[in-house]
Amino acid sequence: MITRTSCDEFLQMLASKAPVPGGGGASALVGAIGTALASMVANLTVGKKKYAEYDDEIIEITKKAEVLRINLLELIKRDIEVFEPLSQAYSLPKKTEEQKKKKDIIMEAALKKAALVPLEMMKKTLEAIGFHEELAIIGSRIAISDVGVGVIFCKAAIMGASLNVFINTKLMKDREFADDINAKADAILKEALPRADSVYAKVESSLK
Asked: What CATH number labels 20-207?
């Protein structure tokens, strides 16, 4: 299974000419790493006397972040699964009108599925940014730099996933559906990027 490969194996696959895993899977992995860093900071904080008043909040972050990290890893697999029918649709014959119509129908369905997976990556990773926002305030100061690293990874994941949304919506004939998906992706970008930048700036200023 793709999610059980070693880092080296995954990067070798990513570097190869194989179309998957690609930018979508890479974005999900980066989001999972960003989320894992939130878990690490939370685990370094919980149980410490200095941060005892925040134990309940920290424990909640560890639980939610663990689920989220697993969800993002699953989306690597889902991204590969939805690309396969899309790849096959591109190679369908279109010599006759009947073939063209059939190809259009199959292609449209495949594009919609392929766009929804990276959109889900964006939604999940936005949640992870929320963990880092909390940890920048209540997390252990010895791991504050990891909050900054984690949140910037989440930002990169969201930006990367958005491009995988847009490359699919651009080709859709159902423009109402495409515009709706684009609007959802744009809304996440508009919210996520300044939030991530704010956390990163807070961490950076605390280290200088």
From this structure: 1.20.120.680
